[in-house]
Amino acid sequence: MSNGGSSIFDYPTKTVLKMIRYRFNPSSVSGLNKFNFIKPCRSTVPGRYLLADDKGYVCTALSIDPESHCCLETGEKFSCQGCNLISQCCNSYEFCVSCCLSPYRTAKELALKIKIGKPVTAGNYGNVFDFCAGRCRHSSASVVHENAYASDFHHCFSLPSNSSGGVSEEFSEARLAGINIVVGSQGENCNSVCKSRRQSCVPNKLPVLNKCDYLRRHMSCKSGCLTSVGADQPAEVVDDAPTDLNPGACLFTRLESMLSCDGSHQYTRRLCPCA
């Protein structure tokens, strides 16, 4: 001790330890509470009116927090406004992304197994936000002709049915939740099949049914399951069909772009997804 001042060494050991704990305890120093570390958000490219952030909120560009770039949390999180939850398609890109981000609608472990593009060498999505932002762009499953959409609900977030090795059989079953699988009459298209039950054919569920497993569950397929080409598939060839058409065989196609609710053939019975 010098000049009449006190030193830390003049205090008992227990007192010194208390002083140190107090000094380095953030809750005891009010100034430290002002430093709130904000995790920045990623968001979709702003559209004409809206954008969606990676937390699952939708807002206008003017409603973004300037520091975090997150939407101000005033609306509904994981909003499915303007979405058909059976077909998993929406009439708005931003609400499609928001709805898709819900962990109850998109399983992370499955989404991360999906390839970004068709080539075998294409990489996988790195996170659920990238998956949703990518899937919700105009879906080829909802295109009727090259530049025409079947309906306003052309932003779809369902997982692709051809993601073999990535999507389990259990998930295929989940994709058909709320769907009535109906076997049509000979020569009848799926629009007619579903309409007779006061329902509508769900076109983006046709690829899910376009598998031998589903055909065998609902049809006899006594002559096997064969790959074919036609808008009437998945289907079964009727027993009295000409021999060259393989009577009793179930048919699926590898050209899923050809699948259509209005496809029909005079010698087949279709397997239809109705809702």
TrEMBL record:
**Per the record's keyword annotation, is Magnesium included, yes or no?**
no
Keyword Transmembrane carried by entry: yes
- Top-level taxon: Eukaryota
Where found in the cell? Answer: Golgi apparatus membrane
Question: A Gene Ontology CC term for this entry?
Answer: Golgi membrane
Could you provide one GO biological process annotation from this protein's UniProt record? positive regulation of SREBP signaling pathway
Membrane topology term: Single-pass membrane protein
What family is this?
A: Belongs to the SPRING family.
Q: What is the name attached to this protein's record?
A: SREBP regulating gene protein
What organism, scientifically named, is this protein from?
Spirodela intermedia (Intermediate duckweed)
